[in-house]
Write a structure and sequence with these properties.
This protein is mainly alpha-helical. Helices cover 59% and strands 4% of the residues. The protein is built from 22 helices and four strands. The chain has helices at 2-26, 33-51, 59-75, 87-104, 111-126, 145-152, 163-178, 187-190, 200-215, 221-234, 240-251, 261-277, 298-312, 319-323, 327-335, 340-362, 365-384, 392-403, 409-428, 430-436, 494-503, 526-543, and strands spanning 465-470, 473-478, 505-509, 519-523. Strand 1 (465-470) and strand 2 (473-478) form a beta hairpin. The radius of gyration is 23 Å and the shape is globular. The relative contact order is 0.11.
Amino acid sequence: MILILLSSILLIPTLIGWGKIVENILGSLFDGISGKVLSGIVGISLLWTILSFFIALNIYVEISTILPGLLYFIKDKLYKQFYSFSKKDILSIGIISCVILLASSYYPYILDHFGYYLPTIKWLTEYGLVKGISNLDLTLGQMSIWHIFQAGFSNFSDPFLRINAIILIAYSIYIIEKKSWIQLCFIPILLLFSQSPSPDLPVIVFSLIILKEILSGNQKTSLLIGFSVFVFAIKPTMIWLPILSFLYSIFIVKSNYKNLVLGTLILLLFFIKNIWVFGYPIFPVSVGDIGVSWKPNSEVLRISSQYAILKTYDMQYSYQEIQHFTSIDYIKNWLFLKGIKSKINILFILTLFIFIVFTIIKKNKIITLICISLIIKSILVLLFSAQYRFFIDVFFVIFFVMFINHFTQKKAFIVFASLSLFFIGFLSFPNLIQKYTPSFRLSKFMGKFEKEQLYKPSSYIYNNFTAHQVGNLQFNISKKYPFSFDTQLPAISSSYIFDDVKAEIFPQLIDQNNIKKGFIWKKMTPEEIKEAQNIINTIESADQ
């Protein structure tokens, strides 16, 4: 807790300082400390995304970013904005922050933390964005802008990767500044994402902030669209937000095309970043082929697509069974999966239906645009891969819009306190979850509370791997564990070894003397197939 607090004390002023720099160039979306923090996050993230094409996001980049931020924070006396808070406000922020610091100090348990977040950040801090890295490990082809942002601060200011806790503290400041009490009810749920640099937390927080500005009649459409596209660039399943901002600018504010410039530039950077690391504009969709030589093998993409379909049905049906579903079966079997995910899916459909009825009754233009945006997003998610983690944000948005005027400060704090106790208990006693909700599999990866986390956040160290070589690629594989979260680079998850061998291809260095030049795939020779099969045999024997 204490080390996360120290990170917050360093990084929040840095973000405020950078927010002032960005506002001097682009203007401010809204006033206050939280407005500058948001602008600072956007500015630094975009700057580092550009830099990471050329250099690693190492300690020199981090120092070179923190110093200007702190300089502006002091030079422009931005700290004086904290003086505008009353003693009651400061007490409220302090209490909320203590809850956030405690919750974020638990062990990370989201599987993507080990299979995606940590490996991505490790690559970014050691090499930056590497061309065609999806050929090495397809998951790395995502390289979210959020992990670029986290990577830049992971060298010394936030080495435990608790940037999401800092975002939640900034969010609490926004809630107090704007007196948007309903949003206080969301923080306890978001505590579940605070132990990892999960992009789900920032996109939910930022989307709710932007949504509040739209509902409040904010007319700065250039920034609304730009920041909305930024949220989409962090996680493309948030496509409803740029759609909403665009529709709002046309039908409500009636803006001209010039207000699309910022959003278009951010979107262009997002596409270029994805093409560089993945080969296509949007991960993991193989649409928009411009013929780059480092795009992934089509067979590997096909296997990945099949896996996404299996995940839609929680791995409860084989791919062959799903292929024989009728149209009714697709819907029925998704709604009535075994376990908790069935309840989430049914709740999602009911909530969306209730919101459509609510929209019809209200006959409000902005609410109608929100409804249209959510329906478009929901259809796309249902068609692509209807996993609950892709539509969890819809619950937050609908609750926010429907109950925005029904929460006083007192009611919100009662809900916040009650839910915080529940979710911290949820994190503290994973055995109870395993016993009473066995279908919530993530509970098996939760660590219990340890007194040491009051000082230093809990984290796992494994660092057990074996070295191998196929062709010109020397690589490492985590031993007796499926993810390479702290394995020396270059590292490949064992599952992708199986996929590559199945496709009879294997990643190779473009330049065997320079990893930064990137990766391509090549058909294996008979000798290389034998080498790869020996690696698979080693993996399988180690797992027995």
